[in-house]
Amino acid sequence: MTTHRFLCDHAWLGAAGVRPAVLVEVSGDRIVSVTPESYRAGVPGTTQLHGLTLPGLANTHSHAFHRALRGRTQADRGTFWTWRDQMYGVAERLDPGSYLALARAAYAEMVLAGITCVGEFHYLHHGPGGVPYADPNEMAHALVQAASDAGLRLTLLDTCYLSGGFARPLEGVQLRFGDGTAEHWAERVEDLSRTYADSMHVRVGAAVHSVRGVPAEQVPTVAAWAAGRSAPLHAHLSEQVAENEACLAAYGRTPAQVLADAGALGPRSTVVHATHLTDTDVHLLGGSGTGACFCPTTERDLADGIGPARPLLDAGSPLSLGSDSHAVVDLFEEARAVELDERLASQRRGHFRADELLLAATRAGHDALGWPEAGVIAVGGYADLVTVRLDSARTAGCGATLETAVFAATAADVSHVVAGGRVVVRDGAHTAIGDVGRALGHAIETLTR
Questions:
Q1: DSSP 8-state class, residue 14
Q2: CATH assignment of 57-362?
């Protein structure tokens, strides 16, 4: 295989810290050597990466079609219902072709922001009225193609979604989300899993939309499917107080307890949001090794609240990050917000170190998505490199530190992205999609005009 060499001005090497002049040699999609203090600028075949280079970022939680909502849901002072009505409106109009165009552009925006792997929480399965397409996984195939075109790896978290609330059937556009029963969901997703069993850039996982979206007696089937294939299992959890109250009324247990009783917690599982937890919930999640994915820019946009990130991490829940509704696509901002939101809530600084927050955006996110070989610049790992400029108006004078990446940089400071050994962003431009803004504008206008 062809060997590529990348000489990083500075690179974060995990426990070894930030080191200068790091030469990273790549064969195929893997790193074969990492040599700090290798001052060999100008060697033929070496690409210079000026700035601070990090491992590829992992966006643990995405709903690609929500990207069409940005800037459109703040009317009427941006209530939750404003947002939900418009979300359902977009979901109603999407078909495989328009989904491909929108997801490709949304994923390209992620790549520009340094994201090299995404977990797509996919529940828009069927056609209007819930009628399956000729291939019941047609919408999933559109997402796979979109990720390939944009140049990032994908964990397709195929989502079981069976009810419109506790003891309420799906209705309206929600019919597109459902498979009738968890058994029927498992039959469809098994076929999807076989299709991509040998893929180098796609892995199929499972998701329980929520305890309100999947009746408690159906959850064990989803959990068993994931366990039988050692696949990731994700679930929305306790995003809003009303969800907890309704769950207690229906089952006499919290959402976390419902998932625990169904066998849906454990080291391969990740709960998303986890905003309103009891102390018992925190210890239940941490004690089982269940991960927690926080999406602060969405949680603040929807006025969900601030989750107990520090207590969860201390209890044993690995922390990861997601952009969720794509109100913002910037994992530096997501990482920063975990700390800054805690400061607002507690009136105290210093809840998280910068390296803890970057671990959430890199290695922990990849682990949650079933890619343990990624998220670190090390021999044998995926050759995913993200270079942050240190000379922008935001980062100039801050130094080559992790604190600069977390507390000063933004997605706009990403200059180069290497994904699986391939340069997908060069000097801030996507090498395949070109004008990502134009692609996004066209895809969204097609759906909203």
A1: G
A2: 3.20.20.140
